[in-house]
Amino acid sequence: MVPSNSCVWTANEEQLLKQLAGRATVNKISSLMGRTRQSIRSKATKLGLSLNFKRTQWDENVINEIVSLRNQGMDWVSIGKQMKKSSASCQRAYSRHICEERKRKLSKQNTYVDVLKSVLEKVEILDEHKVNILKAFREALEN
């Protein structure tokens, strides 16, 4: 759409902006409404609207299905077609999931190491043995 020459916003345009705010990017709203990005931002501010685009959270079952398909060796294009989503969005969801899993695992491992450290502080063994025990424990957790 060509940007509107009119500075005056109609009630319908304001209503449309209220519906789109937070559900689409400023670029997308600008394109749909035929208004400049600055005009969209300015009107949203005046109306007290947030333009922060909120991506929808994916259902855990959908993510698990993507992980399962990828673990079976399926390529991203095929996964996207099967899930009826873009291959790029499936890949991003997969990457976020893997990253979160690693963080949870690391957090759990750190908790175990902290507990072991506190136990070792209370027993009387040489510091070098404590270091060796901690090292062996960390290696065991990684496997």
Number of helices: 7
Query: How many domains?
Result: 2
Distance between the termini: 57 Å
How many beta strands in the DSSP annotation? 0
Helix content range of the residues, please? over 70%
- Succession of helices and strands: HHHHHHH
The shape is elongated
Mind telling me the C-alpha Rg? 26 Å
The main pleated sheet reads as: none
Tell me the structural class: mainly alpha
Question: How large a portion of the residues is in β-strands, by DSSP E?
Answer: under 5%
Low-confidence stretches: none
List keywords for this structure.
143 residues, mainly alpha, 2 domains, 7 helices, 0% strand
Describe the structure.
With 143 residues, the chain is mostly helical. The protein folds into two domains: 1-54; 60-142, no CATH class. It is 71% helix and 0% strand. The protein has seven helices and no strands. α2 (26-33) packs across α3, α5 crosses α6 (87-122) and α6 packs antiparallel against α7 (127-142). The mean pLDDT is 85.
SSE arrangement:
Layout: H1 11-20, H2 26-33, H3 37-47, H4 60-71, H5 76-83, H6 87-122, H7 127-142
Helix pairs in contact: 2-3, 5-6, 6-7
Summarize this structure briefly.
Helices cover 71% and strands 0% of the residues. The chain has helices at residues 11-20, 26-33, 37-47, 60-71, 76-83, 87-122, 127-142.
